[in-house]
Amino acid sequence: MAALELWAGPECTVNRVRDVVRDQLEETGFAQRLDDLDRLASLGIRTLRFPLLWERTAADGLQHHDWRWADARLARMRELGMSCIAGLLHHGSGPMSTHLLDPAFASHLAHYAGCVARRYPQLDAYTPVNEPLTTARFGGLYGVWHPHRADDRSFVRAVLNQVQATVSAMRAIRAVQPAARLVQTDDLGYTRAVPRLQYQADFENERRWLAFDLLEGRVDRRHRLWRYLRRHGASEAELVALVDAPCPPDVIGINCYVTSERFLDNRLRHYPARLHGGNRRHRYVDVETVRVHGSQTGGFDARLLEAWQRYRRPLALTEVHLGCTREEQMRWLHQAWQAAHRVRAEGADIRAVTAWAAFGTVDWDSLVTQRSGRYEAGLWDVRGGAPRRTALAQLATQLAQGKEPDHPVLAGSGWWQRRIRHLYPTHGAPLSIAMDGRPLLITGGRGTLGRAYAHLCHMRGLPYVLLGRADLDIAEPRSIEAALRRWKPWAVINAAGFVRVDDAERQQPTQWRENVLGPALLAQACAGHALRLVTYSSDLVFDGAKAGPYVERDEPCPLNAYGEAKAEAERRVLAHAPDALVVRTAAFFGPWDRHNFVTQGLHALRGGARWPAAVDQEVSPTYVRDLVMASLDLLLDGESGIWHLANRGAASWFELATMAARAAGLGTEGIDAVRGETLGQVARRPRQAVLASERGQVMPPLDDALRRYVIDVGEDVLPQEDGGEQDAGMRRVA
Q1: 112, 271, 453, 562: which is the annotated catalytic residue?
Q2: Is 344 in the same domain as 246?
């Protein structure tokens, strides 16, 4: 058997909600960047699921094709030695002149497919319609996408139209290229249920095979869904026609997503009312299995094995993507790869695993129904100038080249395997897999940033050691060396430092020791042990004379002792460890300490006190949760040098106070706009120290951050001030 291949593909949905069409290729920039093909080839990718989409090529009708975009890209793929699986319709319903329920839908797509085959006779693999069953559910049964129907008759017609379109398209293609292969994809998520609802789960588990069964010619009078299809509008003639002249896939493509595994439960009291639904017989909720089931979370092995046992045809995992933190994306792809190898070892013909959404996705958290701009990175992160390669791309390179992946985070389990996944009372015995692997070493165990790292590393399944000064003095070489030898981390996060800006003017030797000597010694030690280092700098390295926001290449020119120390620390750290990540940030607020500006001010307002805030100093407020999450992603991606990380948007301290009060539902009349000099400030501050980034806009907007901060604080996540696990000098989660 040939070696397992790694395929790839850009997220290419062109979906329609009412009369609004959204194109993921445009929104992620793949449509504009020809050199994205070179990027994919650089990973060792030799087969691409390529979007030669009907809506894009013939948007103005069947007689008006525009081949220029496809011509350029297929030519470049030939130069790169890449083959492609041409996708003609991806969660779409065709140009605006047609739709999934159109009686002429199949003939229209067949006409387009024939045009494609005649123009590109070298193409020998096609997916005429991606995920026909899934698209029919979203558009015909759930009403989410066009044509926004929510009835069985519309669902059945949408499935049949897409399957008939696939058959007709392949006939048109094979009239030109007889050897053309059909690579048919669909989501095969499995449904579980409490005993009372097992009948519904059985129906849905049979229904998920429907598109494949129709193409295989299996849906005859003995098929379990024959009566259902006939009752909801399918004619006997059209079903028999598919039996008599089937169009079986040459490769069955399975698209696996953790949220596709569903659980049906009639114990409504355990779930919020917004989830309550049901059928005509019972009221129940339909939730992700991973969120409620103790041990059954599905998986790649199960879906591959059952597909192999049912069809005995070549298989591929044709979409492997997870919109999550970077290490979880890596674990998801790696586990898919391992599962494919395990199932191959049992005799199944598994051809490939596909790294999907190579350049990310936009708004898939709402099934692309809301335009909120929620971007999820893929093999590359496109928020910035040129696409930036992520750790997921590094993993993909190793897989494509047949190398054993070696990133430390792959030793851990995914969130879908840990107890953190449970949102509701569990059904069945809980299964929890401990975090494993080499830890991150985090300094500053008693500070705001160190606490945030501990909380979020635990959430992300990243083993860590959190050390206070009693356990690690960053300005003492022997202390650093002892900690590194004891804990054997794969990277060091320096969250320690002297943070009192005004006191830094009076305690310069102390703050210099903590803010300059300590980071420099850590950098030397990390370089000596070949460890990655993340350390933090400040917006106060700038003097505020610039007219616009400061970016990474701007030269520091500090006004105060604290800024001078931070600027010198940057220089020394990067001199000792050029691969260190130095993050400039500012104006923290967060849910895990009570001493930040926003938390203290909101507490004052709630108690009827006044909240004075400087109106003459403009900053870039930073939600600590977002800062840590972005820093961890950049660390995993192998980024180095100076990065500016602050939430997008600038504000004076007074404007920040006003925004925070409104986000918390409080009045703003208790907030006083004052000049900074009236607040007892000793150190000079710049009039503006707004941070922006030329390297990538990886932080969310400020208003969104404040909204989430209020929710987090409302969940009572603040730790105890004295004692308690978070204040311990040393803590390890493993």
Answers
A1: 562
A2: yes
- In tens, the pLDDT along 4-57 reads 999 999 999 999 999 899 999 999 999 999 999 999 999 999 999 999 999 999
* Distance of alpha carbon 261 from alpha carbon 323, whole angstroms: 16
Q: Give the Cα separation of 20 and 14 in Å (integer).
A: 10
User: What is the torsional sign of CA 385, 386, 391, 392?
Assistant: positive
Beta strand pairing status for 276-278 and 315-320? Answer: unpaired
Euclidean distance between CA atoms 589 and 705, whole angstroms = 10
pLDDT confidence of residue 722: 34
623 occurs within a structural domain = yes
- Whole-angstrom distance, CA of residue 394 vs CA of residue 405: 9
Q: What is the β-pairing status of strands 83-87 and 47-51?
A: parallel
Type of residue found at 3: A
User: Does residue 81 share a domain with residue 214?
Assistant: yes
Domain count of the fold of the chain: 2
C-alpha–C-alpha distance, residues 253 and 349, integer Å? 12
183 and 327 share one domain: yes
The Cβ-side half-sphere exposure at 291, using a 13 Å CA radius, reads: 15
Q: What is the DSSP letter of 409?
A: G
Query: Tell me: the pLDDT tens digits for 390-409?
Result: 999 999 999 999 999 999 99
CATH of residue 390's domain is: 3.20.20.80
Q: Locate the DSSP E strands across 52-200.
A: 83-87, 125-127, 181-187, 191-193
388: which 2 tokens? 């930036």
Q: Look up the domain containing 497 and give its range.
A: 440-733
Residue 529 to residue 488: CA distance in whole angstroms: 10
Is 562 a residue of the active site?
A: yes
The burial class, CB within 10 Å (0-12 / 13-18 / 19+), for 206 is middle
Q: What is the pTM of this model?
A: 0.92
CATH number of the domain bearing residue 533: 3.40.50.720
Q: How far apart are CA 8 and CA 27, in angstroms?
A: 18
Classify residue 398: in a domain, yes or no: yes
Same domain? For 582 and 634 the reply is yes
Shared domain check, 552 and 410: no
In tens, the pLDDT along 267-311 reads 999 999 999 999 999 999 999 999 998 776 668 999 999 999 999
Residues 383 and 449 in one domain: no
356 touches 333 (CB < 8 A): no
Residue-wise pLDDT for 247-259, tens only, equals: 999 999 999 899 9
- Specify the DSSP element, H or E, that contains 165: helix 152-174
Residue 446: φ, ψ to 5°: -100, 0
654 lies in the same domain as 714:
yes
pLDDT at 274: 94
Stronger pLDDT, 680 or 578, i.e. the higher one: 578
The verdict on residue 247 lying in a domain is: yes
Q: Which conformational region is residue 143 in: left (phi greater than 0), alpha (psi within -120 to 50 degrees), or beta?
A: left
Residue 429 lies in a domain: no
For residue 8, what is the enclosing H or E element?
A: strand 5-8
Domain boundary residue, one of 373, 390, 421? 421
Residues 388 and 446 in one domain: no
**Furthest CA-CA distance within the chain:** 90
Contact 537, 570 (CB under 8 A): yes
CB 263 within 8 A of CB 292: yes
Instruction: Return mean pLDDT, the chain.
Output: 92
